[in-house]
Amino acid sequence: MIIMDDKKKNLLKSSLGVIALLVVLLLLPLIQTSMMPFIMNLLIMSFIYICLAESWNILAGFCGLLSMGHCAFFGLGAYITVMVIIYFDMTLLLAILISVLFNSILAYIIGAISIRVKDIFFAMVTLAVAQLLFSLSMQWVDVTRGPRGLIMPPLYNLDRRYLYYIALAMVVIYVAIVLLIRRSRLGTMLLSLRDNEILAKSLGVNTSKWKIVATIISAVMASLVGSFYILYIRSVQPGSVFTFDVTMKIMIVAFIGGRGTAKGPILGAIIIIIDELIRGWLGGTYAGLPGIIYGLILALFVVFMPNGLISIFNLKDKSTSRSAPKKEVI
Amino acid sequence: MLLNINNLSVNLGGLNILHDINLNVNDREIVVVVGANGAGKSTLMRTIIGLNKASSGTILFENKEINTLQSYERANLGISLVPEGRMLFSDMTVLENLQMGAYPYRKNPKRVKENLEKVFDLFPVLYKNQNRKSNTFSGGEQQMISIGRGLMGEPKLLMIDELSLGLAQKIIDLLLKTVQKLLLNNISVLMVEQNVRQALKIANRAYVLDNGSIVLSGSGEDLLNNDHVQKAYMGL
Amino acid sequence: MGSLDFPSFMTILISGLCTGGVYGLFSSSFSFQLGALNVADFSFGSWLMLSMYLTFFMYKEWNIGIIPFGVILFGSYFIISFLMSKFIYIKRKTDDNMIITMGISLIIQNAATLLFSSYPRSLGIIEKTIVVGGVQITITKLIMLFLSAILLLGFQLFLNKTWTGKTIRAVVQNKEVASLMGINSNRVINLAFSLSYVMLAASGIMLVTLFSVEPTAGGFYQMMSFFICIIAGLGNIRGAFFSGLLIGFLTAILNIISSQFAMVMMFLIFVIFLVVKPTGLFTAKSRG
């Protein structure tokens, strides 16, 4: 009984914190200062990367599959959304649906060819797909206009505040999805795959099938973020979505927060804010310097803090409530 | 005393595989450990050579504690393990397999050659086919290569894990005879076996391992005539 | 494509074959790391790129001879990779290693951008050519093809004939059993990893005589070596050389068909290959 009480108390405490944070984020756009657009941009960029990191986490956290080309799903979502609107004159909703469809197919193909072989295949193939899409979007000038990229028609010009709320809603939904998957049959299945694939196989679980399902879910989530991205930024170039920079940022957000956790990326998003600030400050001088720093952060975190920032909080939880049961991350 | 194991316990993945094992091997002696499948025999061998870690207890080799040493360091002290299932380097020739056994003194070609000749004396069939890939041989011949490879390391203690596994009776007899010959070269042997009767026949002393503990020990002859052993392991 | 006469076609093909030789060299080294040593090294391409840059500066600015330069380059690559293997890779799981090497790759690539700028550098060697029946053959490329073949042959001989080489093969086959022979398996793996890096450094020197280099070049070569070693079958060193030739050949043909979409077509071929024969072309020849 004592354990239950502590658990409830912890749950109450953490949900109070979440609610407080949400209220602050909900009320924030109502403040009128000249700094507001700047702050909102920072937050929206962070939201985008939180969502992408959640989607990345489904693969890395649940399946042990490292997607080294996650920008591919994201960028394809953005590109197809805008292309459908420009070339086929369809509605936004339809455009988003079609991009989701394309990403599901892509994810299925990637999963089908790489998962059954060896884990590193998945990493390599996703990386290769991202590089392929980069060169395709650069070279296929007739359709993608090459490095100049595509611009969203002015029809869908949404107010920044709406976009802010949409992004915030996406974050809430994505975190909820990851938490739900964790508690669902699918989540249990995937975790059992990750921890002991041979055992899962011997129990008759079709491991490849579930991994492919996870890949598709993850790709669809990233694709939707891409659709949001094109609504927000209003233009897309190969260099802004299909480069390894994007994937790297996704991985850094996931890693700094805590790999495979639902709440980790929220903490990890701090790096996106720092990143935007540094880039604004350097303003194009010292090209490469941020990349060096991120590379270092990535490598050092894996070596010295493999469970991310969230492990600090979990540790604190344990020390404050003595009788708390072993807390699982996620 | 060559090998002296005191109160050895081993945990693997949360499972208590061996508990409180006391076992020793003297100079010029064949010691056999018998037991059913899953009794922990292979784990015992792997722990002595250092492939598994002991969770408590000590292992002394020539009165020196070797618990903290890596397996390659233990091999260099003069312990050889002929692993279960032969485990030859399959894309290498017989000669190359044997040469790998001579790794610790590889810079002394004369010594390598002398030991090669000794092994070829023991197993003439290997001499004729020394340049054939090891995976083209029959099970018995592969076991010869594996034992030969173990002997190339000039061991003071040769451990053999399941010598007879999957082999024909004629070959088992031949191999056991060879093992007996080793005593003349001052090599002690520690064997684990499922083929209880034959192993006990050549053993100076023997232990019965059951469910991770030693339940019986004595001379080979004593155990051969022991009721419990006969019932449990020889189907009498 | 119709306007292309036979000699020019052959010229392009032979040139593709020659560059394929160098591809084969670095891919063999990658294949050795991935298939044999089981290290998933995503910083591979970036180290290759760095070696190309260093060679460029050696030739253009530093004025040290090729031999002292080679000694310094090979030595430092050997030491760096030995330390990386010893302190980082050998202790960790594959997916951690993938991320760490990715981080290292980012550091190298961006350091190159910072120090050398993203402007592509080319040695700009004036190429001597010989003409045989209208077919032009560039001497540099021909030399590179032979050089890579010789280096690989040397590596194979080393693995097959020397004690160290045999030890490496033993450890690669079964780490545990090798340790029963008194072999310090971890040290041997570190050593083998370092050797693959020396091959990598050598490939960099050769590659920069053929192509220009820019900080992002590593990604391309990384992908190429992955394709090539998959096509050959993981861990098959000799196979990787031949599929390197094949890919060089193929790239040349694809470039004739459409230089714009050569990479895209190459990727599609790779995907089809993975579906049809995921175990590789040369697996039958490798160890059983």
Could you characterize what this model shows?
The complex is a heterotrimer of chains A (330), B (236) and C (288). Chain A has 330 residues and is mostly helical. Chain A is built from 16 helices and 2 strands. Chain A has a two-stranded antiparallel sheet. The relative contact order of chain A is 0.16. Helix content of chain B is 38%, strand content 26%. Chain B contains 10 helices and 10 strands. In chain B, the strands form 2 sheets. In chain B, strands 6-7-8-3-9-10 form a 6-stranded mixed sheet, with helices on both faces. A 4-stranded antiparallel sheet of chain B has the order 2-1-4-5, with helices on one face. Chain B is globular, with a radius of gyration of 17 Å. Chain B starts with a strand and ends with a helix. Chain C has 288 residues and is mainly alpha-helical. Chain C has one domain. Helix content of chain C is 73%, strand content 3%. In chain C, strand 1 and strand 2 form a beta hairpin. The chains are: A mainly alpha (330), B alpha/beta (236), C mainly alpha (288). Chains in contact: A-C, B-C.
Properties at a glance:
heterotrimer, B: 236 residues, alpha/beta, four-stranded antiparallel beta sheet, 10 helices, C: 288 residues, mainly alpha, two-stranded antiparallel sheet, 11 helices, 2 strands, 73% helix, globular, disordered C terminus
The value of Rg of chain A in angstroms is 20 Å
Shape of chain A: globular
Question: What's the order of the H and E elements of chain C?
Answer: HHHHEEHHHHHHH
- Largest beta-sheet characterization of chain A: 2 strands, antiparallel
- The low-pLDDT segments of chain A are 316-330
Count of helical stretches of chain C: 11
Give the topology, please:
The complex is a heterotrimer of chains A (330), B (236) and C (288).
Chain A: H1 2-27, H2 36-63, H3 71-88, H4 92-114, H5 119-139, H6 141-144, E1 150-151, H7 160-183, H8 185-195, H9 197-202, H10 207-233, E2 235-236, H11 238-241, H12 244-257, H13 264-268, H14 270-282, H15 289-304, H16 310-320
Antiparallel strand pairs in A: 1-2
Chain B: E1 3-12, E2 15-25, E3 30-34, H1 41-49, E4 56-61, E5 64-65, H2 71-77, E6 79-82, H3 94-101, H4 109-122, H5 124-128, H6 139-152, E7 157-161, H7 169-182, E8 188-193, H8 196-202, E9 205-210, E10 213-219, H9 220-224, H10 227-233
Parallel strand pairs in B: 3-8, 3-9, 6-7, 7-8
Antiparallel strand pairs in B: 1-2, 1-4, 4-5, 9-10
Chain C: H1 6-36, H2 44-62, H3 66-87, H4 94-116, E1 129-132, E2 135-138, H5 139-161, H6 163-173, H7 175-180, H8 185-208, H9 217-232, H10 237-257, H11 262-276
Antiparallel strand pairs in C: 1-2
